[in-house]
Amino acid sequence: MQPSSPAEVLRRLHDLHDHLPAGVVAHAADGRILFANRLAQELLGRTLEQLIEAGPVNEEWTFVHDDGSPLSPEELPVNIVLRTKAKLAGLVIGLKRDATSRWLLCNAYPEFDGAGTLQQVVVCFTDCTTLKTTQQSLEESEERLRLVLKGSTDAPWDWHLASSEVYYSQRWWNMLGYRGDEGYANPDGWVRLLHPGDVPMIEQYVNELLPSTRDSFSVEFRLRHRDGHYVPVLARGYVSRDATGLALRISGVNTDLTERKRTEKRIYQLAYCDHLTGLRNRRFLIEELEHVLARGQRSGRYGALLYLDLDNFKLLNDTMGHDMGDALLRQVARRLRSTVRHSDELARFGGDEFVVVLEDLHGSRQGAASEAGRIVAKILAVLDQPYQLDAFVFKSTASVGITIFDGDATSTETLLKQADLAMYNAKADGRNGACFFDPAMQDAANRRAAFEAAMVDGLSMGQFRLFCQPQFDGEGQLVGAEVLVRWQRSERDLIGPDHFIGFAEESGLIQPLGAWVLQESCRALARWREDGALGRLKLAVNVSVHQMRDPQFPLAVGEILSGTGAPPERLYLELTESVFAENVDAISERMHALRARGICFSLDDFGTDYSSLGYLMRFPLAALKIDRSFVRDVDRSPGSAPIVEAIIALGRKLDLEIVAEGVEHEAQRSFLVRGGCSLLQGYLLGRPMPLAQFEQTYRATAGHA
Ligand code: C2E
Ligand code: CA
Ligand code: CA
Question: Using an 8 Å Cβ cutoff, are 536 and 700 in contact?
Fold first, then answer.
């Protein structure tokens, strides 16, 4: 090979320079440009001659910092090296030219002669624009991520499986009360913080996740906070896998669920708990009952549903106030909770009603029934103990309906109905007791419902009739009548009130029925005004305690009076002693309001129930009606006569009229008249008859008038 001439070497060097993927510029010791290769000329947009002429600084381009501000001349690589006389490496500067920006990675070094004098500075630069913009957008996205995370409760982490390297963000540590890693930043760091109860679940979760093909995950667990309590967290994120599906890393965020759990709990409590007693509510029980039935089906064991209702709770509530009522309900709830097993569902159903579900009783219906019976007896005994309410000691009892069920039981709704029915039977049996549901009850309930529906129809079709039974004074003079209602269900079927008043009271139908009776009675009184005989009569109308309970009752009666034009002083309302079991103040107030309009009250069936003198004096009564049962035996049984005599004496003392009903024999009549009874009513003197017939019979005839 021929040795190359110096010119050849120089040419080759130039060639090499021109093909370098970097810009090379050589400066003289005074900063002038001596040489620039092709790439440098391209980047700067000038020929070598122009560069040598104009120098490195001019108006066509600007060198800039990261933030876009221009470099001062001292900051140019060549000037730095000229000043420091040292190598410069890795400086990145921007070059703005023709509205485009490039980023240059610069290295520069000084060249000295043998005497150590600086000869020239060589600056090399490569275009790193792509790298720089990637880095910038990375920084931007990191900043964005940082800002997003700043506002969220998500704490990022990253676990590199192959290298076992784990990264927990600051937020992650903060979530658990740590300032920094404190020795937990390794793959089992978080496992050591995991709630022991969650460990098996998490192990299983991870063991299933890693070998699977799933790339996202979401799992909840609890981590120990630095101060010892556990923080509920939700971990969500991604599994990165290689081409074969092997998991390489797991990364994600943990969300602190404390606040969410608290809200959830609150919502749950609002939806499923009774705020007064803290027990479950009706909604919860009904939903839970479905599960209980399903479990019963699997286990093949019987269960029992108890429907419990406090006796006389309304009375306490009305007389002692709602605070007392609430206090009693809370105590009852506490006693129930401590009496039944923890696993038994217990709920307040509303008002003074509670429901208990006993699960896993005996495998036979009979056995389950006796088990449930024993538990109910225990419940009743516990509830029967006196209650301390403020300064008062209060007695309260309960009535319980029980229904036994197995897995293929009917619907929850049916079960509740059955227990409810049985509870009503327990009440009817005298309260403070329990009653098992039996299908005959259902039949009876169905019949009752049909009967009530027929009554509603009867009322709208005008099937009810008023009958009147005359009342006489001791001399046999007609002084008034009692109105008695009948139901003409069909042409031949006339039903007495004893067969439907009770149902009407239970169904609430007594309100429209009673109003109708009162309306028709007042219309009769108004009609009679012009009649010489009828116009002098008083009309006694029976009023149910359910009607008296209505605060609007006095108003309704007033409207009927003014609507019909009946003389109020001729109207008597007959109440039974059961009104004494009500809120006495309210009832007495209503009676006084009516009395003020001129209406009189008589106390019906006197002597059969509460006969307290105190009560008699609190109500504005005009008459006492001796109960039929005393009248019946007055001339026969040695017990009845003194009672009747005592009632008459009492009435005289209180200045009340004494009315005797059910007078069937002359012996009874003469005894009562001798004793001083002012009014007599009974089959002996006149049977109840249709109103029209009564009017016809007793109307002043032309002769009488
Ligand atoms: P009550 O108010 O005690 O009515 C008297 C009942 O005794 C009436 O029965 C009457 O027919 C019956 N009676 C009358 N005289 C004699 C007699 O000499 N011997 C016998 N054994 N009984 C006699 P009734 O009409 O079947 O009424 C039964 C009950 O139904 C009434 O008892 C009353 O409590 C209730 N009732 C009747 N009409 C109404 C009404 O419009 N509203 C309300 N709330 N209850 C009513
Ligand atoms: Ca009566
Ligand atoms: Ca009576």
Answer: no
Measured from the CB, is residue 497 less than 6 Å from ligand 1?
A: yes
- Dihedral sign, Cα of residue 514, residue 515, residue 516, residue 518: positive
Q: At the topology level of CATH, where does 273-437 sit?
A: Alpha-Beta Plaits (3.30.70)
What order do you get walking across the sheet with 61-64 strand by strand?
33-36, 23-28, 118-127, 100-112, 88-97, 61-64
For the Cβ of 661 lying below 6 angstroms from any atom of ligand 1, the answer is yes
- Please determine, looking at this structure, whether the domain spanning 152-262 carries the CATH number 3.30.450.20: yes
* CATH code of domain 463-698: 3.20.20.450
Of 301, 458, 311, nearest in space to 365 by CA? 301
Q: In this structure, which amino acid lies at residue 456?
A: V
CA-closest candidate to residue 364, choices 316, 333, 404? 404
3-state secondary structure of 258: helix
Task: Convert the pLDDT of each residue in 264-308 to its tens digit.
Answer: 888 887 888 999 999 999 999 999 998 898 888 888 889 999 999
What's the CA angle centered on 231, arms 226 and 235, to 5 degrees? 115
- Find the ligand nearest to 469 CA: 1
pLDDT tens digits, residue range 626-671?
A: 999 999 988 888 888 888 998 899 898 889 999 999 999 999 999 9
Does ligand 1 come within 6 angstroms of the Cβ of 564? no
Angle at 544 between CA 538 and CA 548, to 5 degrees: 95
> Average pLDDT, stretch 686-694?
97
Ligand 1 midpoint to CA 484 (Å): 6
Q: For residue 547, which atom of ligand 1 is closest to its CA?
A: 44
Residue ranges matching CATH 3.20.20.450 in the chain: 463-698
Q: Is the CB of 682 under 6 A from ligand 1?
A: yes
Q: What CATH fold (topology level) applies to the domain 6-134?
A: Beta-Lactamase (3.30.450)
- For the chain, give every residue range classified as CATH 3.30.450.20: 6-134, 152-262
**Interval 151-190: pLDDT, tens:** 676 888 888 887 888 888 888 888 888 887 676 666 677 7
pLDDT, tens digit, 9 for 90 and up, residues 333-374: 999 999 999 889 999 998 999 999 999 998 888 899 999 999
pLDDT tens string 199-238: 999 999 999 998 999 989 999 999 999 899 999 999 999 9
Give the single-character DSSP code of 596: T
* Phi, psi of 102, deg, nearest 5: -120, 155
User: Structure tokens of 415?
Assistant: 């079960």
Pocket test for ligand 1, best of 484, 507, 633 (most atoms within 8 A of CB): 484
Residue 502: half-sphere exposure toward Cβ, Cα within 13 Å: 6
Model confidence pTM above 0.70: no
- Of ligand 1's atoms, which has the minimum distance to the CA of residue 469? 14
CA 391 to chain centre: 33
DSSP string covering 639-705: THHHHHHHHHHHHHHTT-EEEE----SHHHHHHHHHHT-SEE-STTT---EEHHHHHHHHSPPTTT-
Give yes or no for residue 664 CB within 6 A of ligand 1: yes
**Ligand positioned closest to the Cα atom of 483:** 1
| CB under 8 A, 24+ apart: contacts of 68-76 | 68/94
Q: Residue 650 and residue 660: Cα distance in Å, rounded?
A: 14
Q: Which atom of ligand 1 is nearest to the CA of 505?
A: 44
Look at residue 436 in the predicted model and tell me its pLDDT: 94
Q: Is residue 479 within 8 Å of residue 473, measured between CB atoms? A: yes
3-state SS track over 176-202: CCCCCCCCCCCCCHHHHHECHHHHHHH
In terms of pLDDT, which residue wins out, 429 or 565?
A: 565
